[in-house]
From TrEMBL:
It holds the Pfam family Dala_Dala_lig_C. GO terms for molecular function: ATP binding; D-alanine-D-alanine ligase activity; metal ion binding. This is ATP-grasp domain-containing protein. Keywords: Ligase. It comes from marine sediment metagenome. Belongs to the D-alanine--D-alanine ligase family. InterPro entries: ATP-grasp, ATP_grasp_subdomain_1, Dala_Dala_lig_C. Residues 85-295 form the ATP-grasp domain. SUPFAM superfamilies: Glutathione synthetase ATP-binding domain-like (SSF56059).
């Protein structure tokens, strides 16, 4: 997709910081990095520590190379769920009741019970850092202290001494919302509503989701549910200071009230990814989605798009214009698709 914009595109399968240093030295000057990497492949810890995506951007920043998608601070917020929740709470954006537990510490029943009393069982246990549903399985939902301890021990063995988010488990329906654009103007793609009996979404089920999409509900802009989730998504995009593209996961409580359970600053941009699927519902191909994100990042850094890219984007924007909606909030310039 990027090659077809008449830009000189270089690719790298990112393994180590040293490899990236060598690559940059060999190919400078580099105008922009379109990063899909969430860490360094030869350093697995960078994928689930919560800091891999930011570390890659920090390394590029040393060479004054701007990056597509969100910046260093935003990536740190999105990849660390404790920081995500702090930011969202500051802006009165709905999140489940939660507390943070550090697995460096001993499993102290008395202290835990005092925290649990505030939000009550059942609870959802997940690593604070990383993404791609690492550390989440059907066993992540616990109903008593013994199940909590078992999950605590399991995660410590799997990931080492990392922080955990212990939050109120929400039994309702799950949704995922794609947001494209900038602070000034955003596009909210048609929303995916997962089946009510779908259960816990984790790594292995997400990899198979593209085969089950006929069971998903697509929620368009004329639906009241769309408008409610879209406004929360817009506020979230701004709260975490995102750029270009993010994906936000919501879950409802037993009364149907939506809460944000994850903000993904590095949404999958593969052919089978959720963002690609949502974009297809407004007539965008995978290639057009990539080009639009690329264009947004170029414009944000005041770089000059090629004539061909400008031509391509004008056609994409014409296609999207049909789906613009009136602004709900006069203080927020936005386009709801």
């Amino acid at each position: 997709a990027l090659v077809k914009t008449n830009n000189n595109i270089l690719s790298l399968d990112l393994l180590t910081p040293e490899q990236l240093d060598e690559f940059i030295s060999k190919h400078q000057p580099i105008d922009l990095a379109f990063i899909l990497a969430e860490g360094y492949k030869d350093i697995p810890h960078t994928f689930y520590s919560g800091y891999g995506a930011a570390m890659v951007r920090q390394q590029l920043n040393k060479y004054h190379i701007p990056c597509a998608l969100s910046g260093i601070e935003s990536m740190e917020i999105c990849r660390n769920k404790d920081l995500t929740y702090i930011k969202l709470k500051e802006k009165n954006i709905p999140i489940p009741g939660y507390f943070v537990f550090d697995t460096h510490l001993r499993f102290n029943r008395i202290k835990l019970l005092s925290q649990i009393e505030k939000i009550e069982f059942p609870l959802m246990i997940k690593p604070a850092g990383g993404g791609d549903s690492i550390g989440i399985t059907p066993k992540s939902v616990v109903h008593n202290l013994q199940e909590l301890k078992n999950r605590f021990i399991g995660l410590k063995k799997e990931l080492g001494p990392e922080k955990l988010i212990i939050e109120k488990y929400l039994p309702g329906r799950e949704y995922t919302v794609g947001v494209l654009g900038s602070k000034a103007k955003k596009y909210i793609l048609p929303i995916i509503g997962f089946p009510k009996d779908y259960g816990i979404r984790y790594t292995s089920t997400k990899k198979k989701e593209y085969k089950m999409r006929e069971k998903f509900e697509i929620i368009y802009r004329d639906d009241k549910k769309f408008k409610k989730l879209a406004q929360i998504a817009i506020n979230t995009f701004d709260a975490v200071e995102a750029s270009d593209a993010i994906r936000i996961d919501f879950k409802e409580d037993e009364s149907g009230n939506p809460y944000i359970i994850d903000v993904n600053g590095t949404p999958a941009l593969s052919l089978s990814g959720s963002l690609t699927f949502m974009a297809s519902k407004v007539g965008l191909t995978h290639s057009q989605l990539i080009k639009l994100i690329f264009y947004e990042s170029i414009v944000r850094y005041n770089l000059a798009p090629t004539y061909l890219l400008e031509e391509i984007i004008s056609k994409i924007q014409a296609k999207l214009a049909t789906y613009y909606a009136d602004k709900d909030d006069k203080d927020t310039e936005m386009a709801l698709i």
